[in-house]
Structures are given as structure tokens and as C-alpha cells.
Amino acid sequence: DVEEAIAWIGALPAEDQSGAWGGVAREWARIDPEAAGQYALMTDQFDAHNQLVASVSYSWSQRDPEEAAAWALNLEGRTQSNAMNRIVETWVRRDPAAAGDYVSSSLEGDLQTLMTRQVASRWVRSDVGEASAWIDGLPDGQARDGAVYTLVQSIEQDYPDTAQPWAGTIADEQRREATLRRIERRLQQAN
Description:
With 191 residues, this protein is mostly helical. The protein has helices spanning 2-11, 14-31, 33-42, 46-63, 65-72, 77-94, 96-106, 109-126, 128-136, 142-155, 160-167, 173-190. It contains 12 helices and no strands. The longest helix has 18 residues, at 14-31. The radius of gyration is 20 Å and the shape is elongated.
């Protein structure tokens, strides 16, 4: 029973509560991620909140990543980006196209930029062709620049000739020029 577990943890010395929350959070998130997630949003107990956010974001993303992401949007700051990172990472392993579509259409601002890079990074490792096609379809902006930069970093050592035109599409002038110079040095070293 969750209520009994919470009461038990509350009776423990403060130094033992974090470890106890780890086990309870994992099990609760596995059984009922929605209830565990709601508790995580409401609790002001630091250990409970952190353990639950980590466990819920992982467990819920296994079942329904879109619902998990909607829940994570209720979090704030670093906690939100950490939860979204875990959710997107799990989602990309299962269905990179769906994860990419969600990130590019449902998120905004810095969170979108971060998660677009996460999708690109994971997807490039499993299928560089499909990841490249997705990146190519992204609208210009910070999120696309981040994804292109991630792609370039992944392929430039083995395929600098392919990385170079991609680097040329980075809108941020400083990043584009620095990346192109780095690739040019790599090409010169190869010759």
C-alpha cells in the first residue's frame, strides 16, 4: 500500500529517506505512473519529488510516451528538462519518427531545442539516413541548428564530405563558420 509506504518513509531518520524513496518510487511508478506522477507534482519533499520524477518519467514513457511528456510539461526548470530527456530518450528507441514529430510540433523554446538535439543524437546512432531526412524537414531556427550540429558531429570523422554541406546549413553564423573550419581541417588532414 502506497500510503503505508509513505508513512513508513516519513518515520525514518532523514538520512535514510532518500534510499527508501528510491525503491518505493520505482515500484509505484511501475504499477501506477499517473498516480505517482501526480504525487510528485504535489509533494514538497525533495527526495520524494526527485525519485518519483526519475521513476515516473522512465516507467510512463515505456507505456505511453506522449502522456508522460504531457505530465513532464507540468514540471519546472531543470527537473522538467531532465524528465523530458529521459522520456524522449526512451521514446526514440521505440519510435524515433513519433518522438521527432512530437518534439518538433508540441514543444517550444529552449525545451524544444534541447529535445530536438536529443532525438537527433539518438536517431543518428540507429539510422543516419532517416534521421537526416527528419532533420532536413525541420524549420529553420535554433532547434534545427542544434539537430544539424548533432548530425555533423556524429558523421564528420568518417564522412567529412557529407558533413560539410550539412554544416553549411547551420543558420547561426558563428557556429556554422567554426564547424566548417573544423571540417576543413579534418579534410586537409585526410589528404
